[in-house]
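Retro notes
What went well: the complex prediction finally ran end to end.
Inputs used:
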Amino acid sequence: MVRKTKEEAEVTRRHIIDAARQVFRDCGVRSSTLEKVAAAAGVTRGAVYWHFRNKTELFFAMREEATLPFVDRVVFDLNAADPLAGIEVALREIFVILEDHADVREIFEILSFKCEYVDEFKPMMGCSDGQMEFLQKLTEAYRQAGELGALRPGLSASDLAHDTFLFIGGLIKHWLAASPNQRFRSDALSLIHNHIMLRRI
Amino acid sequence: MVRKTKEEAEVTRRHIIDAARQVFRDCGVRSSTLEKVAAAAGVTRGAVYWHFRNKTELFFAMREEATLPFVDRVVFDLNAADPLAGIEVALREIFVILEDHADVREIFEILSFKCEYVDEFKPMMGCSDGQMEFLQKLTEAYRQAGELGALRPGLSASDLAHDTFLFIGGLIKHWLAASPNQRFRSDALSLIHNHIMLRRI
DNA sequence: GTTTATACATTCAAGAATGTATGTAAAGTA
DNA sequence: TACTTTACATACATTCTTGAATGTATAAAC
């Protein structure tokens, strides 16, 4: 066969990852075979085994790409005139990203519904570092809002952040499960708005 | 072999379901083999195939048992003096049940983390009838609370119910993922309390 | 320009896992 | 009591799936 250049090999690698995402979503991670992935990528299993040691390594390579857009785009503007609006914007941004990036959305769908968290995947059941960081930033944002007197009194920043964290987790799950223009999918932004409204003075 | 009576056969059937629950939780549904289930139940695959047509049917038989305790025990007292307290009690009850009934907890764990929602399992991704019913009862309870003037103004009963529904969904997930005496597991009741407090006048 | 490492494709061996078919002994039943 | 059905166990054939081994043509390195 025609041996590829480094650049072409990198393209092949990405094709395999993209194919894996599609196959994982259609078949579930465990039920996906490297044969199916290879076929979807237009290569043979040999190519897959060349780029990845096994399915697990391929899975984690695929997962890598899901977290990237969020760290840049889901940010809390601590200096905003209306800090709660800043939080609302950040929360909305999550779903804008999911709407925009089909690949990220598919990875989230796989992680939520197409993966059995056993053996080497078991540690991923709990909160990821990224999630904990999100919770922490959320807490800080609420603290700031509280200092600016924007919060209705009674609850601590940590309490509010945890409540929002769980709300968002639930919303992401139902948003992913719903088809487009179905209940939770189309109502996400107003649900977020209501959620924040509860916190206003 | 010694042929069993009808009653003994029913016991065998339950053993198989219990074994399936254990194996599903340890291995994931797709990775579980009927051989493992049979071994865990102390029978052969022949017995499993006698009682269930295949793994899917066994899975649904197992799942049947998860919903039962909730319909009886998670109830909203619409006539309570403090209707929000009534809602809080109902929400707490969910986690009391999960704490009490290891089998129910394990089934939830399987449904949340050990199952790939593809093919015949795909329809289960969305909200179950039970969940929709819960959301509906929750809405009704908030409406009642609103009519009694117990709610802080600004949001409709439906808005509040959806917010609570997503919160509870997120909490269940994190509660299940956490080991006992870990963050979300031990804080569940106070998280619920805070959540309800946000709604008070 | 020769050598070597790369980027795959192809082939092979071995082990699951499944569904079915068959065997069997006792429980029901007429 | 003779027959039938039940409740399994056992055996078998078939179908994936995997990992590794091997082949190979070419890009890259020297």
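What we learned: The domain at 65-197 of chain B is CATH 1.10.357.10 (Tetracycline Repressor; domain 2).
What to try next: split runs per interface for comparison.
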